[in-house]
Design goal:
Keywords: TPR repeat. The protein is mainly alpha-helical. It is built from 29 helices and 6 strands. The chain is elongated and about 110 Å long.
Length: 635
């Protein structure tokens, strides 16, 4: 893409190569201005090359054919190896006639586009690494004024500025020029200006202008615009729509949904865009390409600004966002169904097992969370609200509670604005669940009460049952077990009336915890057993594992140690089978406590080490560290 530093790299490489004696004949440089309104042709370039080789005036052949013949003859006779740099090429026809015709010399071509039809060695350039981008701006400021201490005083602001520039060398140079012009104002002031702008490319083009050391204009938008204007209409449309996609990386199937194309057509157009440098194919950890695509931040900002400035393109963009939301809602609903699937139920389509559903959700999480936030616009609320609901099982499973807070809040607000009382109730309820898991218990209770009020007012008995159960769990977490018991009993009765066996089992299990907190041990044991048996009856082995763990804890506190150890073992087997590594870590930690209490530190330490490993696999580093510390204390 433009501004990536192709010319700078080519010239720096040429200088180093010549210093090392690789090209005793020196280097010849021609700027073909391929992206200007009037690019340099090969016929014009050969005249400049002949002039550099000393052929001019009466020695210059009169015809283009004669000029090319003279040029190649000179290079063919030239014993000293020479490097030919043909810079800023937009069309192979600009440089193919200029090739020396001998492999004695070398040619370096720079272009924003890949000449895939030609057998040339290609070196793709990426934006700078974050540290290098920061260093470039800092050095530019210090080279101009060694007393400029802003980089040392504002390291975080400088790093943020480099990120806002997309680590693109041209944008970084423009930002450095703007900072030099506005000295001694803080770097943070420019960061703030960029954040406040609808299109950051406009702010970056508000600098002092001028040229860099290679004579290139320090302006950004024309560089982006020339690349965009050269695209065929289909690719230009795809780039505009891709700039509107949620998240930073977009899967091919999502791009197809966004653009309303079949998968093969979308892939073909993406590959064409990648050849222009405007889109990058993402590489996995193993270095291999994956079917995901990345648009540089500044290209995204430019394309999104192009859409915003045109009413017809805005409508095209809104229709595209609606298509991708439908696609995400459909996929998320099937992933949700797979995560909650029980034996005997119809098999959900698209995802053959839990692992595939979780893999898709992991891959798309950032985009899904961003898409739900489109609910801030009423046009998308009817899709964003159910999408938020479909994500709940996953976000709780993976313990992404901050994301859950964001998603639930967006859904609640959108449902309230659009008069969707059921959606608003679900939003408040999920907000309460996220708050409880984040330790904000009183806020969680308030949220569940709001949800319950809406469900009861709407006559939603099933929703009311769920809200009572979630409120009960929050009350128990707040140390109010008697109130929790009353709420659990209400929830259980409603679930029994509705024939919801799984939810009834949940209430028996959670009711037992509050009974245990009040010292009603035998009742708690009976309730855990009822929960376990109901889970097993419907094939919910994960639920049964949770019930086994809770039953074991009750037996442990009651002094029934042998039974507790056996129950913890049963729980651990089911949690591992289900891939519930957080649950497995919790159970192993409980087992370690039992072994330590019964005078078996070796087994306690082994259990703690296994718990630390399980928590690590669950993405719970704080819990893993505590278990590791406990194991270390037993050495």
């Amino acid at each position: 893409m433009g501004g990536i530093g192709k010319t700078a790299l080519a010239l720096e490489a040429a200088h180093r190569a010549c210093r090392k004696g690789w090209f005793p004949g020196g280097a010849l440089f021609v700027d073909l201005r391929g992206y200007d309104d009037d690019p340099v042709t090969a016929d014009q370039a050969v005249l400049a090359l002949l002039d550099a080789l000393g052929v001019r005036g009466p020695d210059l052949p009169a015809t283009a054919t004669g000029q090319y013949d003279a040029y190649r003859a000179l290079l063919g006779e030239r014993r000293e190896r020479t490097l030919l740099i043909l810079d800023n090429v937009s069309d192979p026809r600009q440089f193919l006639p200029l090739l020396p015709g001998t492999d004695h010399h070398r040619v370096l071509v720079t272009s924003r586009e890949r000449p895939d039809a030609l057998p040339v060695r290609r070196i793709d350039l990426d934006p700078l690494a974050a540290d290098d981008a920061v260093a470039l701006v800092a050095r530019a400021l210090l080279d101009a004024d060694e007393r400029d201490d802003r980089p040392a005083r504002e390291p975080e602001a400088l790093r943020e500025l480099a990120g806002l520039c997309g680590h693109l060398p041209l944008a970084l140079q423009i930002a450095a020029a703007m900072l030099r012009r506005r000295h001694p104002r803080a770097i943070a002031s420019l960061v703030r200006d960029i954040h406040e702008a609808a299109d950051r490319t406009v702010v970056l083009d508000g600098g002092p202008g001028g040229t860099d050391q290679y004579g290139r204009s320090l302006i950004l938008r024309p560089v982006l615009e020339t690349s965009y204007r050269r695209l065929p209409s289909g690719q230009a449309r795809l780039l505009r729509l891709l700039a509107l996609a949620p998240g930073t990386e977009t899967h091919t199937s999502t791009v197809a949904a966004l653009a309303g194309l079949d998968w093969a057509t979308a892939l073909s157009q993406l590959e064409e865009l990648a050849a222009t440098g405007l889109v990058t194919r993402v590489r996995g950890a193993d270095g291999n390409a994956v079917p995901r695509w990345l648009v540089h931040d500044l290209v995204r900002a430019y394309a999104a600004g192009t859409v915003a400035a045109d009413p017809d393109l805005r409508e095209e963009g809104e229709a595209a966002r609606e298509r991708v939301l439908r696609f995400y809602a459909m996929c998320a609903s099937l992933a949700y169904a797979r995560l909650r699937w029980l034996p005997g139920e119809p098999e959900p389509e698209l995802f053959p097992d839990r692992a595939s559903a979780l893999s898709w959700l992991d891959r798309e999480r950032a985009a899904l969370v961003a898409a739900v936030q489109w609910a801030a616009e009423d046009r998308y609320a009817y899709l964003s609200v159910p999408l938020a609901e479909f994500l709940s099982e996953y976000l709780e499973w993976r313990r992404y509670f901050d994301d859950w807070l964001t998603v639930a809040g967006a859904a609640r607000d959108a449902a309230h604005r659009t008069g969707d009382r059921r959606g608003e109730s679900v939003g408040w309820d999920h907000l309460g669940l996220a708050l409880r898991n984040l330790g904000r218990t009183e806020e969680a209770i308030d949220a569940h009460l709001r949800a319950l009020e809406l469900s009861r007012a709407d006559g939603d008995r099933d929703g009311e049952a769920v809200r009572w159960g979630h409120l009960a769990n929050a009350l128990a977490r707040a140390g109010r077990p008697q109130e929790a018991i009353e709420a659990h009993l209400r929830a259980r009765a409603l679930h029994q009336a509705g024939g919801h066996v799984r939810e009834e089992a949940d209430e028996w299990n959670n009711l037992a915890l509050s009974l245990h907190a009040l010292g009603r041990t035998e009742e708690a044991v009976d309730a855990h057993v009822r929960a376990r048996d109901l889970y097993l009856a419907i094939g919910d082995r994960h639920g049964a594992g949770i019930a086994w763990n809770n039953l074991a804890r009750t037996w442990e506190v009651s002094g029934r140690t042998a039974e507790a150890v056996e129950a913890y073992g049963n729980a651990l087997e089911l949690e591992r089978e289900f891939g519930d590594w957080f649950g497995a870590g919790r159970t192993l930690n409980n087992l370690a406590r039992v072994h330590a209490a019964t005078g078996d530190p070796a087994r306690a330490r082994a259990a703690l080490l296994q718990a630390a490993d399980a928590y690590t696999r669950a993405g719970a580093p704080a819990e893993a560290a505590l278990c590791q510390s406990g194991a270390d204390a037993l050495t």
